[in-house]
Amino acid sequence: MLTVSGSPHVHGDDSVKKIMYGVVYAMVPAILVSIYFFGLDALWVLLTASVSCIFFEWLVQKFIIKGPVTINDGSALVAGILLAFNVPANIPIWIIIVGSFVTIVVAKMSFGGLGKNPFNPALVGRIFLLISFPVQMTTWPLPKPLYGGTAVMDAVTGPTPLGILKEGVKMGKTVPELMPEMPGYVNELMGFQGGCIGEISAIALILGAFYMLVRRIITWHTPTAYLLTFFAFTGILHLIDPTQYADPFFHLVTGGLMLGVFFMATDMVSTPITYRGMLVFGVGAGLLTAIIRIWGAYPEGVAFAILIMNAFTPLINRAFKPKRFGEKVVQA
Amino acid sequence: MNDVIIFSIISLSAIGVVAAIVLYGVAQKFKVIEDPRIDVVEEALPAANCGGCGFAGCRNFAEAIVKAVSNEESIDDFNCPVGGSEVMTKVAEAVGLTVEEKEPLIAVVRCNGNRANAPKKINYDGPATCAFAHNLYSGESGCPNGCLGLGDCVVSCQFDAIFINPETGLPEVNEKCVACGACVKACPRNIIELRPKGKKDRRIYVCCVNEEKGGPAKKNCSVACIGCGKCVKVCPFDAITLENNLAYIDPEKCKLCRKCVPECPTGAIHELNFPPRKKPAEKKAEEKDPPVEAKDKTAATKPKNEENNEN
Amino acid sequence: MTTLKTFKRGGVHPAENKISANQPIVVLDPPKQAFIPLNQNLGAPAIPLIKKGDEVKVGQLIAKGEAFISSNVHSSVSGKVLKIDAVIDTSGYKKMAVVINVEGDEWEPSIDRSETIKRDFSFTQKEIIDKIKEMGIVGLGGATFPSHVKLMIPDGKKPEVLLINGVECEPYLTSDHQLMMSNGEEALIGTSILMKGLGVKKAYIGIENNKPDAISYLKELAEGFKGIKVVPLKVKYPQGGEKQLIKAVTGREVPSGKLPIEVGAVVNNVGTAFAVYQAIQKNKPLVERVVTVTGKSVAKPSNFLARIGTPISILIDNAGGVPEDTGKIISGGPMMGKALLSLETPVVKGTSGILIMNKQETHRVEMLPCIRCGRCVSVCPMGLEPILLSQLSRLQMWEDVEKQKVMDCIECGSCQYTCPSGRPLLDYIRVGKNKVGQIIRNRGKK
User: Fold this and answer.
1) Is C65 among the domain residues?
2) Chain B interface, mutation test: which of A5, A7, A114, most B Cβ atoms within 10 Å?
3) CA separation, residue B97 to residues B34, B68, B88, B241 (Å)
4) Domain containing B59: what range?
5) With a cut of 0.85, is the ipTM above it?
6) Tens of pLDDT, residues C224-250
């Protein structure tokens, strides 16, 4: 019996599954770095988050939606790892399970599951935890390398560089006075700084981003616009008053910026679909991140900035259409 | 402290008064004078906003009626298929007129090409929408006019009155039908027709819309109308016409005598809700029996159609 | 090496699979029975001139295209007309066709069947257009738009350049490639005739870089022709689309909703150029064409010169028979071709290839929810938003569908090809395009 269907009759070999697992592979360097610096704590958090995210997705699909179970498409795994990336390594396990619940059940499945959530689920989970458990979420263990290396300070826990900056400036110190307390650019780039599991090592995240760019899982538009805007904004402020505002390179390598730029702001579901829209999204997120970091109550603004821009995504999609072929007559 | 309270009360009251004056002024300036009868008519309507009357919603329908009345035109052409004659009588009362009673209609699916009658020859792999499949090819059985069974009519129905029977793969209309005509418009092959409900739900119609010649039609479907014209000859009321190899029974002229039904060589003429054919003496006793064609309606479930549930 | 020209926006690169690329054209005998559809062109069907029982010769006019956009149909075989009946064609429906029982192979005496190449011609512009109309030439790329209508330039427009489409961007298909290799010179003469017919001085032949032999062969030949230039293009689908080809070769962008003549360009397929040569120089109507029969399971992927009206089953038999695991038979290429319902479907003027897909390839990938990756948007060569169009179409929001320029869609299928969720984007866009087309036509009537 012959089959009929509309053209095209062939399909490119890309699939949701491949994209999702591609993202997982891209996160491997950051996972390894986190285990290197935080030891088994990080591994436990990562495993708990991934398993509980997948479990909650299965639970909802099986018993509430009663539809097909699609836990092996990798999207729950990605959300789980991203959530784990956004929490400190020493967080109590039960909190991460609560976070997974919010991530999957509230932020993803309640909107209809894959592809329908307006906000990035992992970020919703993170913000929920940050607001509900501020102490646990802002007590970061300092990196304790498995071998070699010495900790910057003797304490077991300590603030992130951004936290030091925010508190210091609040107490009236100037930025140059605070800089000696920081781990230094190279350490910050490599990951030797306080912070959440996945955000410490800029270099590992950039490595993953490079992989995703090559595999064409993400495009250059959002990250470039995001980083450039952020760099320009913090740079200008730094030039105006170097004692009040840290230099842009410091901002680039600290906090969750790289994680946010490459893994959260490029999340397909909750960001614009057109190139123009992606650029606008990046600019908006970059501005908001800088504003929250410098003038906001929280030392870190990436998560809020991206969530706020997520809310604007439908509007951006409406306003920034791709350039139609033949829209403006270009005579060569 | 007292000063603050007094000051706030005074200032807020002042704002309130000013705002009230502005609002009153604006309301007076932009006042739209509407015929109060529109509201009365709308009251009488079922508020389903189905569009079955040909207007966008019940309000528009009411406006059109009132407009026609104020222009002293007849409102006989207006019909709310959902509410039927009952509602139309109320509407007429509201505008001070009377309407003649209209016979209630029901949607009738004129295709019987189920899997047994019209075996599948082609496999369709694509989205579950008749509109697309109709443009793509003639159909799984090869019949260019037959039901595609992908349920555009089911999607269009606001009243849960039409379902695809999973056994036959064809749509079936149940008693919830209000003859709004949405499915008639949704069907790309014009298979569904609004016909008078008939006394005791009795209807006779040609259950086929195939316009091919007899041979090719029969090849695809064993119950197709082959355009032989036997029914035309036997009909005592000239209710049946034959056009493009297809017989059509005019419901206005048909007196439900059932003479054409046994005459059809392919069984394409269906009789619905008639008592079984028995000898005249037994006829009366059998009247309460379950109707012949009324199938088990509960068996017909909505097709599992993921596509329709998605945004 | 300089960078090759191509169009800028969107596009995909499906696996080429040109497995029949090096198979020279094999001439097929006329079939025992030919089914010649009356509507082989875009537009109105032709009106039959013969009746049951008539004797016809090869090349005899059997149906006349009366409407403005319509074209003549000639008998491709000699024999007796059995009937004019409904026969299933590529549209998936039965359409009227002339059925001829073949007896011998007697050609109209006016047709020059010799192999000698006639280079010189001295026809006027009008004579050329009339001859093309008389000989029933239509665009052989697949759209089958009557060629003479393309040459009739509306008032106020001035053609500047003729583009010959030798791109063949569809995977699998190789008929144009082989035609260029075997009849390159004739195609170039046809190109000069078309240039004369249009009154232009420049012609470009666009060929994709995956056919280096055809590029070098035609480049060599083109030196002997004034004003014809071969342009190698980067391999990218859908470069064979009219607007994409114009953009790639000349850099001009045809405005939305307008015809190529708006930017002074006219596009013709290389097969059409060859047919024009035969019509003008050899007095031969369009009665046969090159058809690729291919597919991964096909025993002998081939390029055939087949008579119009030959059932495709005969072509497939000559290519080694219908493979056992056949799941789908497509007329045309895998990106834009139409799935056929029956092996008895005849070859028509627009049949560029027969692609046989095995059962494994036949099934579409599993459909998942849209993840808004935006790939359909980035690959759309027309700068549309396929996901938006398909959703609006499904929700029957026709006004919005129209506003989002659904009529610009060229139905290339890049969006659906690339969709990681395997969504039937183009299927729904077609529904919308159809409906909006109807709405626009109705508006025109009022």
Assistant:
1) no
2) A5
3) 20, 12, 10, 37
4) 36-94
5) yes
6) 898 999 999 999 999 999 999 999 999
